[in-house]
Design goal:
4 helices; two-stranded antiparallel ribbon; alpha+beta; two-stranded parallel sheet
Length: 112
């Protein structure tokens, strides 16, 4: 494969093979069964971002893939809260990096 994973990503991916959910069914088996037996797939992405992957899913599972995203928020219309203006003001210009992982991603303390 040409996919390169970090060690922690490879471990997490490998752990899925033995992870069990409800009735002792392996997560991998439950996921594959769901994908194989559903009528269609829906993903929160768009063809412009992940076109080749969408094509692969459509051909592999022989199903229509409906796309409903990405969700692009409207730009803020209000000023930044004063507490954040003060906090950010402590840093040199262009030295702060903002990362948004979305509401579906919950980081544990070590990852944060």
């Amino acid at each position: 494969s040409s996919i390169k994973l970090h060690v922690h990503e490879a471990r997490a991916f490998d752990a899925i093979k033995t992870m069990k959910f409800g009735s002792g069914v392996l997560f991998h088996n439950r996921l594959f069964t769901s994908l194989s037996q559903c009528d269609a797939l829906e993903l929160t992405t768009c063809r412009e971002i992940e076109g080749p992957y969408i094509d692969n899913l459509e051909s592999h599972f022989g199903k229509s893939v409906f796309l409903s995203g990405p969700v692009i928020p409207k730009p803020p219309t209000s000023a930044l809260e004063e507490k954040w203006v003060k906090w950010l003001g402590r840093f040199k210009i262009r030295s702060v990096i903002y990362c948004a992982f979305g509401s579906e991603c919950t980081l544990n303390k070590d990852q944060f």
